[in-house]
Hints:
four-stranded antiparallel β-sheet, single chain, alpha+beta
Amino acid sequence: MMRLPLFEYRAPRTVAEAALMLDGEGTNAMLLAGGTDLLPNMKRRQQTPRTLIGLRQVAGIGKMKWDGDVLRMGAVLQVSEIVNDARLRGHCAALWQAASQIATPQIRNMATLGGNLCLDTRCNYYDQSYEWRKAINFCLKKDGDTCWVATGSPKCVAVSSTDTAPALMALGARVRLVSLAGEREILLSDLYNNDGASYLRRRPEEILTEIMVNLQGGWKSTYWKLRRRGAFDFPVLSVAAAVKMSAGNVVDDARIVLGSVSSRPLVMPEAQAILVGRALDHDAIVEAATSAARIAKPLDNTDFDLTWRKRVTQEFVTCALRELRGDDMGGERHRLIGNTTG
């Protein structure tokens, strides 16, 4: 049985109090929300903070608020609350679909939106027990100096496996980060580095407190996820797509984001540009999907063969764009990803 290491637990009641604690403890502390990722990592000694600062009791960061044309979601909002809000199925379909496919109902009742956005990157070497990793020698991400997936790489190539980040990036989400020095608001896409060991641009003293989505503009969105089982598993490929269309299915703007093919969710600017100003017809969809698949470079550090995962990227992007066009993709979704929203 793997046991948690010893740690101190603190339970602030306000964001200011949490920021003060985090600033005082520095790199010895980590933030705890739902704990569905951090606590198993601590048992494997992947993360070993001396102090955990719990955010569950912090006022004002656990609710969802429809503020005019802006949807505001606190960082410790439970994933299950997103799934249970019927309004999101229409206004933010990609987010609802992504949240619905996270793990299991029991885990969704514990997991938080902010926790999923800050989910630790994953790798077949890194995600093992301490004894296993010690036996083969530690890796670049934790305690070692070699990436065992790409031994010549100067940086870690562990994979970003968050479901909600690609979906929210496709929706143009912004996040608020708070510290003792003040607060700043950035695009969610600017939160991530393409480095598996240093995958967040959140400064050590900052707390992610809020996620904001602008509901204006008539955007339609969707999220498609590949995993071995129809439930529970992390994605090994995800596609989030959103389009804003005028008459005749002409695309005025588009966003395509791939997840689990790199150390950060990848925006596909070339694929997006292919769609803008064109009808969302067969040729435009094929061109955009081909472009996205060309950029995707999955590595051999997660489930399924990497060459097959790269090839199937084109099919997933095609299906996502066809769904946004209005095609009935229920049967195709079931065939490719299973019934994962129950």
